[in-house]
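hey m, so remember when u said the tokens were messed up on ur end? i reran from scratch. heres the input so u can diff it against urs
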Amino acid sequence: MERIKELAEFMERNVTTDGTHETSIAGLRFVRSSQISEPVYSVYEPSLCIVAQGSKLVLLGEESYKYDSASYLTASVHLPITGQIVEATPEKPYLCIQLQLEMSQIFEVIQSSKQDRPSSSPGRGLVISRINDPLLEVVLRLIRLLENPKDIPVLAESIIREIIYRVLQNEKNGFLRHFALVGTQAHRIAKVIGVMNQKFNQPLKVADLAKEASMSSSSFYNHFKEVTGMSPIQYQKQLRLQEARRLLLTENLEAAEAAFQVGYESPSHFSREYSRRFGLSPMKDIRRLRETF
């Protein structure tokens, strides 16, 4: 596909080192890797990810998603995932574009285009879709603005709105409408997910979250699991463990101190769950990561 080739060539010219690179367009970043990666634990923001070269495997709960230059990923809520680059070489590095999605922008596009209110269930908050030329063409116009920075303040926002429109045109991505429209079950779940990301270190009561979502406890539990692929407790646990790992790696804390900061009352309970999640005890895992970097 010519447009994918052009996208890869643009990134090859402008992104010459591995890592995640912010751009001068708000919400747009480039990712490059010249080798297959270890599994990386992170939280996806609502975003659009397009691979120009190589491929990536994403684990959400017990489900796996693989995408490459023939497809793209859309995340509509914050989701704790495990990601691994599975196709990359120094000669043909993994190249990916990530564009953060704002629900307010999606809502405005829906209103402007007079799209129907969704009637079916939203399903997962993460979807892999087939790439198409209309979407690629708009994405290329966005990244070309980086070569003419003076155009960014005038044109970037309207081009991003067009990208959102093209994503919404994809029948499989009708789920985005669920999360952007106030009053839908998906929008209420997304609101609660936002609260959980801010207060993950506090005690969690499903009944309180259900009340926040204006649902019964059983209805909230089922809809939450439908969107995230995991229960509210499992979701919170992943947020806590990933934040604890970040604290241990970047702030040189003791395991017990990191455990308390993310909300665990028992350091031994924290260590067991950490080992189950990352395969090693906290200190052994952090030592291995530091040796790797």
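this time it looks ok to me. The two ends are 36 Å apart (CA to CA). if urs says something different then somethings off w ur setup not the seq
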